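User: Please predict the structure of the protein below. I'd like the answer in structure-token form so I can feed it into my own downstream comparison script.

Assistant: Understood. Taking the following sequence of 326 residues as input:
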Amino acid sequence: MMNILAATVILAAALSGSSGSVLAAGVDEPREWLERMSTAMSQMSYQGTFVYVQGDNVDTMRITHVSDEDGVRERLVSVSGAPREVLRDSNGVRWVLADDQSVFADSGFKRRFFPALPLDEDDQTAESYSLSLGARARIAGHKARNLKVLPRDKYRYGYSLWLEEHSGLLLKWIMIDSNSQPLAKLMFTDVRLGSEVDVKELKSSNQLKKFKTVESSLPSGRGISQAKPRWQPAELPPGFSLTAHRYFGRQDQGIYEHLVYSDGLAAVSVYVESNDGQGRNETGLKRRGTTHAFLRITDDVLITVVGDVPAITVQSVADTVVPVSP
């Protein structure tokens, strides 16, 4: 069953926080369609129910995304399966899981349900993916245009995207591997745009109000570091470069470092944490759906690399993470 963390990365490899107005309909360049999608997903108000399919698992979720003078507010709630809910606004992120019936909050960790991954101005994305326009279709009552984003190598997944013709809003995607085999699918079954969005659905449920809210002390929520990384991969797969860096270190608490590498669409996170020598049996390759993680321990430091990418990508990055020479 897809959990909340999986829900937060449902469209991670396909979305961006690009600025600017939505372009006029009728463009025929694949790159422009990708930019329109990025703008629509970050700046438009939309609301709908989508179905996420991976293997034998089918989950139904409802998203309300409002962008106005009050900023961006979002609510994601499960329609099927165990009750799950996530809220995001200027106060941060809060989510509730039925497994332990507890609410977790972190005002410093303002993670999007649909993470903003920058599209590079130098079109570096084209070096890692081939873009092409496909057929038209009707999805959730809207006309849509197909955009194929296919990987040029084995280090990343590809996507077949269906975008609403007038706004560029993403209505459906299929994740595919380097051999063009489908891995997962997401599709809206209904969607409202702009003024049709019911903002009342942004309100938290009674379940979320009922449980105690716990403030997080995660160092990952303490802002972006301007200092140079203390640890980093000596080699990266083609097209990936550093896009974000956090560092937290205290003598009594050890170190915590988080680096994000992106190729413009896919993203890989590298975590470096102090380790007391325990958990060596937990190292190696882990998988949950299309997300892979690779853990290794060196010099009493636990290195974890995770991303919605093929296994070879996280392992190749983890194997080369080393301390940076002064």
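That's the full token string. The chain has five helices and 20 strands.
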